[in-house]
Design a protein that fits this description.
heterotrimer; A mainly alpha (about 220); B alpha/beta (about 350); C mainly alpha (about 220); A: about 220 residues; mainly alpha; MetI-like fold; about 80% helix; about 0% strand; C: about 220 residues; 10 helices
């Protein structure tokens, strides 16, 4: 009963922080896709370069998220951008790069030269090859990179509370320091359902985008 | 290792995969199981190494029920080759071939020597392939390693499930010859599943034709071609079987002992046998009974080797208008003779 | 203010927090690797195979729940302290090990297992000489993933009394003190990268080169 009371009293702040949380992720997403997929496509022709870029991004991903937020504060501090949403968004973009680049590379790799050649042989134009072969084949793999980034981002954005970016981290961290169980429970429920919900939703989209002939791989 | 099937059936749910199998697989011979997919030939194979357990009946190996032998031990005594080969991707060629010897705790030196011996046997260059992983080999090389692996612990029995099915025709022919060569040297009991009648005729001493889980006909290759029991067998054989088989059946399958040997032609006047072979320390020629009957002794020099095709033998016979030919091994050993009327089918 | 000030002036604190971090990591991570491998192997045994997919689905859902939520959840039941922290880290880093062990094993080509059986390998020999060795690349990526996640989550676990370098980072973030942040960020990043590199070297040593082709690393 008490808990429902809490929800009613605090519904505004809950909605506000949920919105904040999603905002961080949604702002980061287009940058992550643009930079990640773009880099993936650009470096796909150079094997050595792809290897180095993948290695570099995998090192970046090893850095624990609170530490990466710290690094953002350190780097952006001098520009007066050390607090608030910008460092959180940038940290998220950096984290998203690895799954984006990796999946883009493997998507491009999955389209064999033979397949393109046979498409050309059948008389497809460059445009038709792009829309009928390259995009349908690579979209699901790239989508799974996007899903990974988003699901990861939901957890990482929670740390944003510590740099005044707002978001659902507030309920957990403030709840912990104040010993307010109803806040913590709210944080857990929202974060967990956001993570599971987005994962489920994006998986569905992924499988809808996957051509039927490729589905057996999952 | 002779194998005997007594009333063997296997049911999957309510459907019989094989039904009332009663047949005997000859020791040291190649027996081919052939039939359309789903006919039960692969099931029959797997019943022997107990990858599939039969529903009823009895299978005897060397007169002993396979249930009396520990499953693991039984399998280690049987070589097993399948179409997908199933080489272990994480093992090198050496380790793949050494699997069973290692399971049997052979000493290291013995294993190494065995691997070298086997690679020679399947015509692979030891130095070239020994440290390679399966992905670095061609399809043909992989299947050779698969055969070598199956032979590793010198099993008396070899089960081969469409081993060359996924290999291109040219390499398939080569591998079939490799197998025949191995068989000549090692004399294993081989059970060979295929759906390619050409392969069956070329390799099989005996052929069992399967349909819907039952054996339609089980006979020596030549008898099967000569006397197909029903329409189904005729269809499997194909229209040209009676002619085609000449090309890929070897002379050795028709060798007869209807001959005499002499070291000089001086004592010839009449002979009991069809053919008189003149032999001192090497093959000198031969004389035919029919020639003697006609009153003129003619020494002929033609012969065939056991691994030549029957078609080649027939060509020589046609050329000289004769009805039999001596079969002489390359090292000048007399094997016997081959007769026209045995080759030509009604 | 110099970036290295806090690090140099309080290196003893930093060292102590680092060793705390390492200890918490080692205890919780090795437990999750051991138990994760065990569960992963158990659920792929013949008699358990009907549950394999269920466990795989469950663990993939669990992987989409943010670590912060798990930490908070464990806190709700066990309160604050090192053991709570270790337990939540154990739970969270258990999931990728189970997932990768099980999926690595069930994705092995069935004919390879059948041939192994046909050659007369016992169930135990098949497990140790075939299944685990062929699944090793997947298992290793699960173990590495688990280590990286563990170190990162251990940082966050500072908020429920886990100690470690997270304490320094969160203190720095709370005071918006770049020098303190840096004193936590630097060692934790080095720690994460070092552990991952050690595991990468180990992986290279242990995984058969014959599997690189299938992994697409050639």
């Amino acid at each position: 009963m008490n808990y429902i009371n809490y929800l009613i009293v605090n519904k505004d702040i809950i909605i506000k922080e949920l919105f904040n949380h999603l905002q961080i992720i949604l702002y980061a997403l287009p940058f992550a896709i643009l930079i990640g997929v773009g880099t993936g496509i650009l470096i796909s022709k150079h094997q050595k370069l792809s290897k180095y870029v993948l290695y570099l991004t995998s090192i970046l991903m090893t850095i624990p998220s609170p530490a990466l937020f710290g690094i953002m504060v350190i780097i952006l501090g001098p520009f007066k951008l050390g607090l608030g949403k910008p460092p959180a968004i940038i940290a998220l973009v950096i984290y998203s790069l690895l799954p984006m680049i990796r999946n883009t590379l493997s998507a491009i790799k999955s389209i064999s030269k033979e397949m393109i050649d046979s498409a050309k042989g059948m008389g497809m134009t460059e445009m038709q090859i792009l829309f009928k072969i390259k995009i349908p084949l690579s979209l699901p793999i790239i989508m799974s990179g996007i899903r990974n980034s988003i699901v990861m981002g939901i957890g990482i954005a929670a740390i944003g509370y510590y740099i005044s970016a707002g978001g659902l981290g507030y309920f957990i961290f403030a709840g912990l320091s104040r010993g307010r169980y109803e806040m913590i429970i709210t944080g857990i429920i929202l974060l967990a359902s956001l993570g599971m919900g987005f994962n489920y939703l994006l998986l569905k989209i992924e499988s809808l985008l996957t051509p039927k002939g490729l589905r057996f791989k999952n | 290792m002779p194998i005997k099937f007594i009333n063997v059936s296997k049911k999957f749910k309510d459907v019989y995969a094989v039904k009332n199998l009663n047949f005997e697989i000859d020791d040291k011979k190649i027996t081919v199981l052939i039939g359309p997919s789903g006919c039960g030939k692969t099931t029959t194979l797997k019943l022997i190494n107990r990858l599939i357990e039969r529903t009823s009946g009895e299978i005897l190996i060397n007169g002993l029920s396979i249930d009396k032998i520990d499953k693991i031990e039984l399998r280690r005594k049987i070589g097993y080759v399948i179409q997908e080969i199933g080489l272990f991707p994480h093992y090198t060629v050496f380790d793949n071939i050494a699997v069973v010897p290692k399971l049997l705790n052979w000493p290291k030196n013995k294993i190494k020597n065995r691997v070298i011996e086997l690679l020679n046997l399947v015509n692979l260059d030891f130095k070239e392939v020994i440290n390679k992983y399966p992905y670095e080999l061609s399809g043909g090389q992989r299947q050779r390693v698969g055969v070598a692996r199956a032979l590793a612990a010198d099993p008396e029995l070899l089960l081969m499930d469409e081993p060359f099915g996924a290999i291109d025709p040219i390499n398939r022919e080569i591998l079939q010859d490799v197998l025949l060569n191995i068989q000549k040297k090692l004399k294993k009991t081989i059970l060979f599943v295929t759906h390619d009648i050409r392969e069956a005729i070329k390799l099989g001493d005996k052929i069992a034709v399967f349909k819907d889980g039952e054996i339609q006909q089980y006979d020596s290759t030549i008898n099967l071609i000569k006397n197909p029991k029903n329409k189904f067998i005729e269809n499997i054989l194909g229209i040209n079987a009676k002619l085609n088989y000449l090309e890929f059946v070897k002379v050795e399958k028709f060798i007869e002992k209807d001959f005499l040997v002499t070291n000089s032609i001086s004592n010839i006047n009449k002979i009991e046998k069809e053919c008189l072979i003149i032999f001192t320390n090497k093959f000198e020629g031969f004389v035919l009974k029919t020639d003697i009957k006609k009153g003129h002794i003619k020494i002929r020099n033609d012969y065939v080797t056991p691994d030549q095709s029957v078609l080649e033998a027939l060509n020589i016979m046609f050329k000289h208008n004769i009805h039999c030919l001596p079969v002489i091994e390359k090292n000048n050993e007399i094997k016997g003779i081959i007769k026209y009327e045995k080759i030509i089918l009604k | 203010m110099n970036l290295f000030d806090y690090l140099f002036n309080n290196y003893q604190i930093v060292l102590q927090r680092t060793s705390e971090h390492i200890i918490v990591f080692l205890i919780s991570w090795s437990a999750s690797v051991l138990i994760g491998l065990l569960i992963g192997i158990l659920i792929t045994r013949e008699k358990m195979q009907k549950y394999t997919n269920f466990v795989l689905t469950l663990s993939s859902i669990a992987q989409s729940i943010p670590s912060v939520a798990i930490i908070a959840l464990v806190f709700l039941f066990f309160g604050i302290g090192k053991l709570t922290a270790i337990f939540s880290l154990f739970i969270y880093s258990l999931v990728p090990v189970i997932f990768n062990t099980a999926s690595g094993i069930i994705n092995i080509d069935k004919t390879i297992i059948e041939v192994a059986e046909g050659m007369g390998m016992s169930k135990k020999e098949i497990l140790f000489k075939v299944e685990l060795l062929i699944a090793l690349p997947t298992i290793f990526s699960g173990i590495r993933n688990s280590a990286v996640i563990n170190i990162a989550t251990a940082t966050v676990a500072a908020v429920i009394g886990g100690g470690g370098l997270g304490v320094i980072i969160f203190t720095g973030l709370a005071h918006y003190n770049v020098s303190i942040i840096f004193a936590g960020v630097l060692p934790v990043s080095i720690l994460a990268i070092t552990i991952d590199s050690i595991l990468a070297i180990l992986e290279k040593k242990l995984v058969s080169k014959g599997l690189l082709y299938e992994e697409g690393k050639l």
